[in-house]
Amino acid sequence: KDRSYWYYQGSLTTPPCSEGVEWFVFRNAITMSRQQMNLLVKGLSRMRYASESGRMTYRPALPLYDRVVTLGYPDSEHYASLDSTREVSSAVQNPRKVVFVAGADGRIGQELVRSLQKRGVTVRAGVHNLNKVRGMFGGGVSVVEFDVTNEVSKLQRAIQGVDVVVSCVGFRPTYIQETDRILSHEIDNVGNCNLISAASTASVGEFILVSSLLTTAPKDNLNRKLLNALGNVAEEKRLSEVALIESGLNWTIIRPGVFSAEPQGEIILGNSNDFTGGTQDRYLGPRVRCQSPFMATSGTSCAVTRAQVAGVITDIVMSSNAYHENRGRVMEIVARPFNVKSLNDI
């Protein structure tokens, strides 16, 4: 195949190569700067390949962090690893940042605040109701009452002085069609657009928007139609994505797939529409069995946990300002069992 597997994982593990597949395994993946990609390719070019017939492919839009990469080639039991820490250590720094988390009282927001706290990041949590979050967060987190439907000037005051804004806001379905349509428009679209405008006015360094898969899928895509049954939410989220892209801010759009309570496998990161419909079959390989009933209709990917998504966002936040030259990208997130077993083999 001419596609690569890109795995996000918390620790370095070397699995057996799938037949005919070229892949790379990354530890603690985040967005790679152009400078780091050049260093990586330079380092890999000096390596002696385990397979003379092996052909390295890479996609510069996808990530690397912790300067450790493992690569494998088809039908080869040999692996090579590159540690380019010495070359990029001067380029990669993690300055202390102040991060504003909008929707910190939501399920993704709570996971993100905890993840950022563990990494020593200063967090300002924007919540809808202060009374409901007392004791929710530990020390070191300042909590402010925050509603994205407020006027831009009020939102600007809430985020003044922060380095990064992460929007985890989204409407909570009532399953009443007209009510959901109104809420989705006010929160996922207009509310996020207000926050983007406030961040631009406040000269925030970076904006990370948690959106959803399928926002740019074809109109006739079945999964997109099902998602839009909840308040036309795919359309509304897409409008906020466009507003961010056109804002002039350094931006990252995170598009997770469906959520599960327990991990279904390792995270796989992709570009826009990599994991939409039949495209998944070309990127991800054979159908797999997921522990959760929630999986892609193609059967090639599984649900992700909110904690996994929060971990990816945290790694993006922890990247240095050197990444800003490459900032302005979409990262789609799905999961897949690491030791792949095809449904045909079960």
From TrEMBL:
Give residue ranges for domain Alpha-carbonic anhydrase. Answer: 1-73
Residues annotated as transmembrane: none
Q: Which PROSITE patterns match?
A: ALPHA_CA_2
InterPro entries on file: CA_dom (IPR001148), CA_dom_sf (IPR036398), NAD(P)-bd_dom (IPR016040), NAD(P)-bd_dom_sf (IPR036291)
Specify the protein name. Alpha-carbonic anhydrase domain-containing protein
* Natural source organism: Amorphochlora amoebiformis
